[in-house]
Amino acid sequence: MARRAYPSVGAGHPLLRLNPHQCIPFLEGLFVSRRGEAKLEALPSPRVMNTHMPLAMIPRAAAPGGGGCKVAYVCRQPKDMVVSRWHFHRRLHPELAFADVFGAVCSGVVAYGPVWDHMLGYWSDSTARPDSMLFLRYEELLRDPAEHVRALARFVGLPFSGAEEDAGAVHDIVKLYSSGRLKNLEANKTGHVNPILQIPRGALFRKGAASDWANHTTSEMAQHLDEIIANKLHASGLTFHE
Fold first, then answer.
1. Among positive and negative, which fits the CA dihedral 173, 74, 112, 107?
2. pLDDT tens digits for 71-106?
3. Predicted confidence (pLDDT) per residue in 124-145, tens digit
């Protein structure tokens, strides 16, 4: 959305010197801050924010279709999500066992509630209001990042022009935003995402790959979570593949 103000090939691009969360604030962070409303007003319009909140918790004005707002939701294969969650929390709690995180997810006892409810909220809205809710799968983003960059641009109303395509703008964005490049930048290796919780910025970047769950779960664990997810999602049409 800011590609015209900050060309991807420019040496001064914000993502080359700032952590992504410094560029795009958390929606929930704005609402818990005493100066949250002032910070919100200070953001250039159209505003871009991110959140981990389930759809039901998003303020109506910021929900899909509310006030012209749009939401792009990124969903990950549940087994890989568990692995990613474990690695992230281990940065704060090195003693945390994988089995404990796996069990919590299977039981639905995690922040913001069961992961299947989280996914279903956004999935259902994406089928009802595709113009304001875009449901994306992490694995598909990895397989074809360029086409998904184009889809995102169309979704936010800023499709790439023929001149931009000819100039390689899509390729430049994919290269800039690749996890391999971002994880090696100084802004993402030092400092903290949240100074209060002491979450290191490096915790946000690991492999950036799919199917790593096979290196962490037993076949019994994988089957157990697959069965839970299939049971919870069976009536929705939302499925996951390896």
1. negative
2. 999 999 999 999 999 999 998 899 999 999 999 999
3. 999 999 999 999 999 999 999 9
What is the enclosing helix (H) or strand (E) of 75? strand 71-75
Please enumerate in sequence order all residues whose Cβ is within 8 A of that of 164, keeping only pairs 6 or more positions apart, or say none: 170
The CA-based angle 233-111-56, given to 5 degrees, is 60
**H or E stretch including 74?**
strand 71-75
Specify if 58 maps to a domain: yes
Looking up residue 61, the CATH number of its domain turns out to be 3.40.50.300
Model pTM score = 0.90
Grouping H, G, I as helix, E, B as strand and the rest as coil, residue 26 is strand
The answer to whether 102 and 221 are in contact (CB under 8 A) is yes
Whether the Cβ atoms of residue 147 and residue 173 lie closer than 8 Å to each other: no
Q: Could you list the beta-strand ranges (E) of 129-227.
A: 133-137, 192-194, 199-200
Q: Cα-Cα-Cα-Cα dihedral of 20, 199, 88, 108, to 10°?
A: -100
Q: Which residues fall within 8 angstroms of residue 205, CB to CB, at 6 or more apart?
A: 179, 182, 183, 188
CA dist 155 → 135, 146, 230 (Å): 11, 14, 29
121: containing domain: 14-233
Asked whether residue 215 is domain-assigned, the answer is: yes
In a domain, 179, yes or no: yes
Number of domains forming the structure of the chain: 1
Enzyme catalytic residues: 52
